[in-house]
Amino acid sequence: MNGEPIVTVNRVNWHVTNDPFYAENGYVFYLNDAGPCWIVDPGLPPQASEMLAFMDARHLTPDAIVLTHAHADHIAGIDELLAVLGQLPVYLAQPEWPMLADPRKNLSAGFGVPISAHPDEIRDLPVGGTIQLGPTAWEIGDVAGHSPAGRSMYCAEHGVAIVGDALFAGSVGRVDLPGGDGAKLIRNIRQTLLTLPDETRILSGHGPETTIAHERTTNPYLLHGL
Q1: What is the DSSP string of 103-156?
Q2: CATH architecture assignment, domain 7-224
Q3: pLDDT, tens digit, 9 for 90 and up, residues 59-112
């Protein structure tokens, strides 16, 4: 997705970069040039440097790093970003906090390239709570099952949901990793995501965007189970 046009929905904009190893989607979300932004799931190089270049070109000021979950490919760029930007709050569901600094828990140790992140300030993403980007409110949802405490962020005003590796276009997150739970994942997708309006745009941790209507009617894992 590198080099693709910036996507705009009303006043919510997002810029997507991919890492070259896992094709993980790292996002910069913002409302207007020269305004605040979120960095969502910064992954392996060169994502962090590409995010920094984009924020600089748009004169954006990051408010926070927001993590859908703490697997290595979604946290690898944190320390590089903080080294340049200074300390920012990192939002992550509390049960996954130990994964940030532990390559065994974030699953990078097994791939021979241990990854860790060491933010000074970590803030919880409590299910049912909200997180603000400027004037927009994003509801925090439970999409655990791919990871122990995966979270989604849904903005009803603009019909957009950030879902990490819970739901993909035509698929769902793998559940054979430590902390995975297939029954929980499907239950959470049904309760947290499929209850959203049909037109809701779904931004996943890998692959293209999709919609709730499309996944509800065509996704084989939701129609037939894991």
Answers
A1: TTTTT-GGGTS------S-EE---TT-EEEETTEEEEEEE-TTSSTT-EEEEET
A2: 4-Layer Sandwich (3.60)
A3: 999 999 999 999 999 999 999 999 999 989 999 999 999 999 999 999 999 888
